[in-house]
């Protein structure tokens, strides 16, 4: 076996040698030269960066620092270049052989991985299709509304939402840049990077009142990921500007921030429709970003702010162990009895388990709070439909409301993560089963519609069974949660079905949501030809397409044990130094 491989290798090298010598001669006559200033080091650094593009910057720096200094060298002669190229091919062949051996060993040790190794040969095509969609979405925005927050792909006009305040903050650019980078779209990533570097300025440019939560998950989260992925230092300054701009929102008697903030005046306010209460999903979804900002700046103030919020939530009197959706920033008491894993509640739960993962399993408070509330959710909020679909109810005054939002499908990924890390076998099996059953229900909500895309809200009442045909909200606004859930299930179970479900949804979006200048939401998923909303949400590029893409990559791309996705799908590296020394320092 080995002999055959070596022979093949030698034959390939001889062939390559001849080809390269011929090419060398040709380029010599064409006057081509190597590196203009005679240095090879920059290219090597770029190679190391490229090979390590998925590693945290700290590791990358360490690796570069470990390498001996390389002195400038003379320009290489053509035969030398050819020789080096041959050497490189030899090295690649050896690497390939090694990889094959490692794959074989891994197949023995991890049957899930082995199933994946033998997966659908169509996979590359699927991945490429997602990249094409990203390019289409990006080009529409870039060509017609560059610098605006979002594009209206039908009219080609800028779209602004209240959450962004009044100014053009380039929301799509900041939200999409890490997806471009992950997909290897270098030119597009560099456009985004240059715009952020030269134009993004939260302190000077933000106007009106913006959403503290959305600014955190989209802008701060995006910048933190870009820093972690690329190591370009200016992202730290930009992220710090966003964090500093938001600090005033925490100036309340309890430290619980308000929903909206004017960056210019520093005045925060809550919504009238929320009876001036703060919202659980908003105040509970800041932890990862502020913790990471403290890590990269070395300034503990950001983590202290969100830790204080966590402490209030931890101590507050709950309803049967569950967290109502509204809380007073004045006295830290919950208000009302509406409990939901959809809108108003969702990512608070997500961030408990993710904060524990981000902390390298050391944030014990997050672990304790997550495991306790998960137990209660499983006890009080799981129901089954007449066709035996498992779903999550909402609770109001202790009574179940039999509806599930598209947003609530995020819980598929959350329970899959819990099951993955759960040690107790019976509980592990139970929660993994719950994740898969909920994933199936979210799938039914998709395939029971004409468009094969699921509605904003689906019901389990009367004739409705994971549908919204007669009742309620039947549109789709390019949301990611369902694909996100299947992404986690694919990564953690290795069942091909989840890849196929993502592909079906991707094809449906391409069929129904694509317009000349981007992608739009649908007014009615049951009558997809009826009309569209003319908004390309920035999260379509940040999340929907990213999770779809990562479903078709190797598991080593953004490996789940090294990266934690914030709720906008911006990956943050697991913090190996948690807890930071300063964490316990009293807050001023
Ligand atoms: C995104 O901004 C985030 O996923 C958030 O957690 C919920 N809403 C949108 C997508 O649906």
UniProtKB/TrEMBL annotation:
How would you classify this enzyme at the top EC level?
hydrolase
Annotated Ca(2+) binding lies at 567
Q: Which domain of life is it from?
A: Eukaryota
The protein's GO terms of the molecular function aspect are:
calcium ion binding; mannosyl-oligosaccharide 1,2-alpha-mannosidase activity
Catalytic residues? Answer: 214, 346, 456, 481
Query: What is any one GO biological process for this UniProt entry?
Result: carbohydrate metabolic process
Q: Which cofactor does it need?
A: Ca(2+)
Question: What family is this protein classified in?
Answer: Belongs to the glycosyl hydrolase 47 family.
Name listed for the protein in its UniProt record: alpha-1,2-Mannosidase
């Amino acid at each position: 076996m080995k002999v055959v491989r070596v022979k093949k290798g030698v034959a390939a090298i001889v062939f390559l040698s001849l080809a390269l010598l011929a090419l060398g001669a040709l380029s010599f006559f064409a006057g081509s030269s190597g590196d203009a200033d005679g240095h090879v080091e920059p290219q090597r650094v770029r190679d190391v960066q490229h090979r390590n593009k998925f590693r945290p910057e700290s590791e990358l720096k360490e690796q570069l620092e470990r390498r001996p200094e390389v002195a400038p060298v003379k320009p290489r002669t053509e035969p030398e270049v050819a020789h080096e190229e041959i050497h490189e091919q030899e090295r690649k062949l050896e690497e390939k052989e090694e990889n094959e051996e490692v794959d074989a060993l891994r197949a023995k040790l991890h049957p899930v991985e082995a199933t994946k190794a033998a997966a659908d040969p169509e996979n590359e095509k699927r991945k490429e299709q997602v990249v094409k969609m990203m390019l289409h979405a990006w080009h529409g925005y870039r060509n017609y509304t560059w610098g605006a927050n979002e594009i209206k792909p039908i009219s080609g006009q800028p779209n602004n939402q209240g959450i962004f305040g009044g100014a053009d903050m380039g929301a799509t650019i900041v939200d999409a840049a890490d997806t471009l980078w992950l997909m290897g779209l270098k030119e597009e990533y560099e456009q985004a990077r240059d715009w952020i570097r030269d134009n993004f300025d939260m302190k000077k440019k933000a106007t009106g009142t913006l959403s503290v939560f959305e600014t955190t998950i989209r802008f701060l989260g995006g910048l933190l990921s870009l820093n972690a992925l690329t190591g370009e230092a200016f992202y730290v300054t930009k992220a710090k500007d966003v964090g500093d701009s938001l600090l005033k929102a925490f100036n309340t008697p309890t430290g619980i921030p308000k929903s909206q903030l004017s960056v210019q005046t520093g005045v925060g306010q809550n919504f009238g429709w929320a009876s001036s209460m703060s919202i659980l999903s908003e105040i509970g979804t800041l932890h990862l970003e502020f913790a990471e900002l403290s890590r990269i700046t070395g300034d503990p103030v950001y983590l202290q702010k969100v830790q204080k919020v966590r402490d209030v939530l931890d101590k507050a009197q709950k309803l049967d162990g569950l967290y109502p959706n509204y809380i007073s920033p004045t006295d830290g008491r919950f208000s009302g009895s509406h409990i939901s894993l959809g809108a108003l509640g969702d990512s608070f739960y997500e961030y408990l388990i993710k904060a524990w993962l981000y902390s390298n399993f050391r944030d014990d408070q997050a672990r304790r709070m997550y495991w306790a509330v998960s137990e209660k959710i499983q006890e009080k909020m799981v129901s089954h439909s007449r066709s035996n679909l498992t779903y999550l109810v909402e609770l109001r005054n202790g009574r179940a409301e039999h509806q599930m939002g598209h947003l609530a499908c995020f819980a598929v990924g959350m329970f899959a993560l819990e099951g993955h890390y759960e040690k107790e076998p019976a509980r592990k099996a139970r929660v993994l089963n719950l994740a898969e059953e909920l994933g199936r229900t979210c799938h039914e909500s998709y395939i029971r519609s004409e468009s094969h895309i699921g509605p904003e809200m689906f019901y389990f009442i009367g004739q409705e069974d994971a549908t919204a045909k007669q009742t309620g909200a039947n549109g789709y606004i390019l949301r990611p949660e369902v694909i996100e859930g299947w992404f986690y299930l694919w990564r953690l179970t290795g069942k091909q079905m989840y890849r196929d479900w993502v592909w079906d949804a991707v094809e449906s979006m391409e069929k129904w949501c694509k317009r000349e200048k981007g992608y739009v939401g649908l007014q009615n998923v049951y009558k997809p030809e009826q009309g569209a909303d003319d908004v390309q949400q920035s999260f379509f590029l940040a999340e929907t397409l990213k999770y779809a893409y990562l479903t078709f990559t190797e598991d080593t791309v953004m490996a789940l044990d090294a990266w934690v996705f914030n709720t906008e799908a911006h990956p943050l590296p697991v913090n190996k130094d948690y807890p930071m020394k300063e964490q316990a320092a009293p807050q001023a």
